[in-house]
Amino acid sequence: MTNLIYVLGSGGHASVVVDILLQNTPEPNITIVGPKVNDLRKNLSQLRFISDAELQSYNPSEVTLYNGVGSMPGTNLRQKLYRQYSDLGFKFSALISKQAFVSPNVNLSAGAQVLTGAIVNVGAEIGENSIINSGAIIEHDTQINSHSHIAPGALICGDSIIGKNCHIGAGAKIIQNISIGNNCLVASGAIVTKNLENNQISYGYRSQVINK
Question: Whole-angstrom Cα distance, residue 199 to residue 142?
Answer without folding.
Answer: 20
